Amino acid sequence: MPKGRPKRMTVPRLRAAKGGVPLVCLTAYTSPMARLLDPLVDLLLVGDSVGMVIYGMPDTVGVDLETMIRHGRAVAGAADHALVVVDLPFGSYEASPEQAFGSAARVLAETGAAAVKLEGGQAMAETIAFLSARGVPVIGHIGMTPQAVNMLGGFGARGRSPEEARRIAADADAVAEAGAVAIVVEGTVETLAEEITGRVAVPTIGIGASSRCDGQILVTDDLLGLFPDFTPPFVRQYAELAGTVRSAVSAYGEDVRARRFPGPEHVYAAGDGKA
Ligand code: KIV
Fold this sequence. Notes:
Blueprint: H1 11-16, E1 23-27, H2 31-37, E2 43-46, H3 50-53, H4 65-76, E3 83-87, H5 97-111, E4 115-117, H6 125-133, E5 138-143, H7 149-152, H8 162-178, E6 182-186, H9 190-199, E7 204-207, E8 215-218, H10 220-223, H11 241-257
Parallel strand pairs: 1-2, 1-8, 2-3, 3-4, 4-5, 5-6, 6-7, 7-8
Helix pairs in contact: 2-4, 4-5, 5-6, 6-8, 8-9
Bound molecules: 3-methyl-2-oxobutanoic acid (KIV).
């Protein structure tokens, strides 16, 4: 391993990060982006948000297992530092622990990812225990669970009422006790995310949750400002790439129309030796 290069993130190292320096996590769906992000983050999630970000779907419900495997393979093949985790999509794991094992085994075997993530709390505890006992590391996902959008009626924050907060805290306990190696806590009130982080023994990874979680995750395209029309309230945009793309493409358009592109350096001449 080259000098100074951080060690590869593994599932045991992820678990050991509980209470330490917060884990840096981002989504990736493609090989070039995975190569860029890999040295900079601890965990790359091939999220089912791929459906919305790459395929323009209105939500994640229509994403299928083949899509996750295709993108999972692209990302895992490009990463040699971060832990690569692939989402199990809606409909690929809820029917039974056996169905979940079949899907998870395909994901791990066909992509090279190290773990899967699935949504749900107490209702998924048996499945998480089943997978964990059979060598499948599972990251749980509780709070605002986007695959349940049709039941929840939208993507708004969860845990505002004491009753719902109690249910989400119980979800966290159930998922952790079932053997999840980490838990994504999404879109919950801050105090609840802090309470959950304090009570479970595994790392919590927050999104729209709290800076006190054991790690943070964002959709990379949100962080980069590639969705100018809508930015969720919990996103901090670290770049405004939509504007950069617009000005680069309009400069290209002007050059093409004025015949300034391609220039002499971009064309081939007989005997110029260019490859
Ligand atoms: O699909 C996804 O990108 C996710 C993260 C937002 C946590 O599940």
